[in-house]
Amino acid sequence: MRGHEAVSYTHLDVYKRQLYGKVCDSGGMLGCTQLGYVYSTGAGVAKDDAQANSFYKKACDGGDMTGCTQLAFAYFEGLGVAKDINRTIELDRKACDNQGVQGCTTLAFIYSTGAGVPKDSAEAAKYSRKGCDGGNLSACINLAVTYYTGRGSPKDVAQAVALDTSACAGGETWACTSLASTEFMAQQGLGDEKDDAHVAGESRKTCDSGQITGCVMLALLLHNGLGIAQDDNAALALFHKACDAGATIGCMYLGAAYSYGTGVAKDDVQAAGYYRKACDGGNVASCTALGFAYQNGFGVTRDAVQAFALYRKACDGGQLAGCHKVAVGYQSGEGTPRDPDEAVAFFRKACDGGDTTACEDLKAEQ
Predict the structure, then answer these.
(1) Which of 15, 245, 274, 303 has its CA 20 to 30 A from that of 71?
(2) What are the boundaries of each domain within the chain?
(3) Helix/strand/coil (H, E, C) string of 290-312?
């Protein structure tokens, strides 16, 4: 049986390659991009990055912006071509200017990290905003960071929270984590950059004296680069220390780190474990993140009923993204019996709390 499956998939891959080739030859640029995927992954053909790039270029020249962003990635990583950050930026900018939002998001990353170019917070914020406006949730998370930190745009925590709330409801668990950390930091009274530097110094003192709240605060400041040089590795060590001591926000951040591969190797099983520990300890943002894992089978066996229960727990704990997810469950019947009236009620609850995406869904339901 297993041998038949292998042959079947091989035949399917060959069929796809032939089909994409016909579409590409007839002027269908999406077919050229798909053919590029075939050669870059080696699906039914010998892996050949140079050949993949030739199809990505044809697609890009023909107006398919995904072809441009794929070719840009090849130049960024040196796949089948010599690394060339200028060519990467040129191609991503072309995509971004023509509604290829992934190009905007990549440009934001390049300018925010200084990947081959001088760091430029204003440029990073500009492209994050453009990508977010185009519907890319990762870009919305990046834009939220600029509003949290005031790097590249004026500080606006309310706007940052609104962006993270929508991204969290859309399944971006890092945004859920960010919302919880924002609440924690607000409780500690963080102010302007000068105050952040003072808090960083005081947090280090309290952490060194054995007070876990100080370690959590210092980790958050290190992670965000507020009042202190950004250092994700140092932040991660402190989050481990906090989690081991029972601070759920530390466990939540570890879950996000393993989920996204930030500072550690990506590991969905580890991520789910830390999210569960945090959720069981009352961290409702982690309940939403764990619900997303169950909904999609990330590190756990897919279980829509369990996912819905976790979203409901998060909502009952006051997290708007959880309420939004509950509404979607009632709307679709995934994990719970379909109930349009309950869907409207939970969309309204999320909307009234400030989830703008839920407000749009509410209008559509009424």
Answers:
(1) 15
(2) 1-96, 100-170
(3) HHHHHHHCCCCCCCHHHHHHHHH
Fold of 100-170: 1.25.40
Where are the alpha helices (H) located in 44-120, listed in sequence order?
49-61, 65-77, 85-97, 101-113
Q: Distances from the Cα of 85 to the Cαs of 72, 98, 107, in angstroms?
A: 9, 20, 11
Domain covering 1-96 in this structure, CATH number: 1.25.40.10
Query: CA-CA distance, 238 to 254, in Å (whole number)?
Result: 10
Measuring CA to CA, how many Å separate 138 from each of 14, 127, 260? Answer: 34, 12, 12
Give tens-digit pLDDT for 153-172. 888 878 888 888 778 777 67
Q: What are phi and psi of 299, to 5 degrees?
A: 80, -5
* Residue keyed to tokens 């040129």: 90
Instruction: For 188-247, write each residue's pLDDT tens digit.
Output: 555 444 466 777 787 788 888 888 888 888 888 888 777 788 888 898 999 999 999 998
SS3 3: helix
DSSP three-state, residue 172? coil
Coil vs helix vs strand at 29: helix
Phi, psi of 328 (to 5 degrees): -65, -35
pLDDT value of position 276 = 97
